[in-house]
Amino acid sequence: MNIKVRVFASLKDYFAPELTLDVPPDSQAQAVLLGLEEMNPVCRDLLRSCRLAVNEDFITGEHPLRENEEVAVLPPSSGG
Amino acid sequence: MSRESALSSKTLDANWKLISDSPLRPEELLAQARNPASGALVLFSGEARNHNRGRPVLGLEYEVYKPMAEKHIRRIVADALERWELNFAACVHRAGRTEVLESAVVVVTSSAHRSEAYEANRYIIDRVKHEVPIWKKELYADGESVWSENCENCSHPSHTSP
């Protein structure tokens, strides 16, 4: 199934800001991180430091994905 | 009535942009936070600084996931209003290119006595720095620009339990 993915900040050096990932049916959110890591193995450490969000709320890696859900991949914040 | 609307008289009204593409005006927030019942008003301004790790910096560039950042700033401010006896609390943050001598983030808190305003102000800025999806890029004088990793390796729970 297709998942819409948005990436931010340093991740945009490696990925398009918005992309679509094809993940197996009944995947959990961590499949998004694995999919991105597969596309760009050099990002492994960065991806493992990221958090995920759906509908502007943080989710865990166990969040069950639904077709066409939009998942935001957020590097560690550095505001302020 | 939601928790946040119940507290809305003690923070900026919905017309205020909590994420601003133009320079912040701390004096406007100070005016908002003034309250006849408050004997203390604390204003923190996080400023764009002209150096980082010993290197000259020309300015900063902030990337913000705006809808999520606004939602979480509102939540953090609401948490502070519930936790301390405050008459007012608010936080606004810059997006985009921010020059040296400009504010990157402003937090204001006011209360009858100073300890609540100080504690709540520190609580808000600490959570905003760690939890709100905002990223800073330092623009160095030599032309290099680098995404800040200033809290990537810290032990704040937001990084260890996603």
Structural class of the helices, strands and pairings of chain A?
Answer: alpha+beta
Beta-strand fraction estimate of chain A: 25-35%
Low-confidence stretches of chain A: none
The geometry of chain A reads as globular
Q: Can you tell me the residue ranges of chain B where pLDDT is under 50 for at least 5 consecutive residues?
A: 158-162
| Arithmetic mean of pLDDT of chain A | 97
What is the domain total for the residues of chain A? 1
Largest sheet entry of chain B: 5 strands, antiparallel
H/E topology pattern of chain A: EEHHEEE
Along the chain, the helix and strand elements of chain B come as HEHEEEHEEEHEEH
Number of strands of chain B: 9
Can you say what the CATH homologous superfamily of chain B is?
Molybdopterin biosynthesis MoaE subunit
What's the helical proportion of residues of chain B?
25-40%
**Class of chain A, according to the CATH hierarchy?**
Alpha Beta
What is the mean pLDDT of chain B? 92
Structural class of chain B: alpha+beta
Helix fraction of chain A, binned, reads 10-25%
Give the neighbour order of strands across the main sheet of chain A: 2-1-5-3-4
CATH second-level architecture of chain B: Alpha-Beta Complex
The largest inter-chain interface, given as chain pair and residues per side, is:
A-B, 22 and 32 residues
Write down the domain tally of chain B.
1
Can you tell me about this structure?
The complex is a heterodimer of chains A (80) and B (162). Chain A contains 2 helices and 5 strands. Chain A has 80 residues and is an alpha+beta fold. Chain A has one domain (2-74): Beta-grasp domain (Ubiquitin-like (UB roll), Roll), CATH 3.10.20.30. A 5-stranded mixed beta sheet of chain A has the order 2-1-5-3-4, covered by helices on one side. The longest helix of chain A is centred in the middle third of the chain and has 10 residues, at 30-39. The radius of gyration of chain A is 12 Å and the shape is globular. Chain A starts with a strand and ends in a 6-residue tail after the last strand. The model of chain B is unreliable at 158-162 (pLDDT under 50). In chain B, strands 3, 4, 6, 8 and 9 form a 5-stranded antiparallel beta sheet that branches. In chain B, α3 runs antiparallel to α4. The longest helix of chain B is centred in the middle third of the chain and has 18 residues, at 66-83. Chain B has one domain (21-138): Molybdopterin biosynthesis MoaE subunit (Aldehyde Oxidoreductase, domain 3, Alpha-Beta Complex). Chain B has helices at 3-6, 26-33, 66-83, 114-131, 157-160, and strands spanning 19-20, 40-47, 51-52, 55-64, 88-94, 96-99, 103-111, 134-140, 145-147. Chain B is of the alpha+beta class and 162 residues long. In chain B, 32% of the residues lie in helices and 32% in strands. Classes of the chains: A alpha+beta (80), B alpha+beta (162). Chain A binds chain B through residues 6, 8-10, 49-53, 56-58, 60-61, 72, 74-80, and chain B through 46, 62-65, 67-68, 71-72, 93, 104-105, 125, 128-137, 147-152, 158-159, 162.
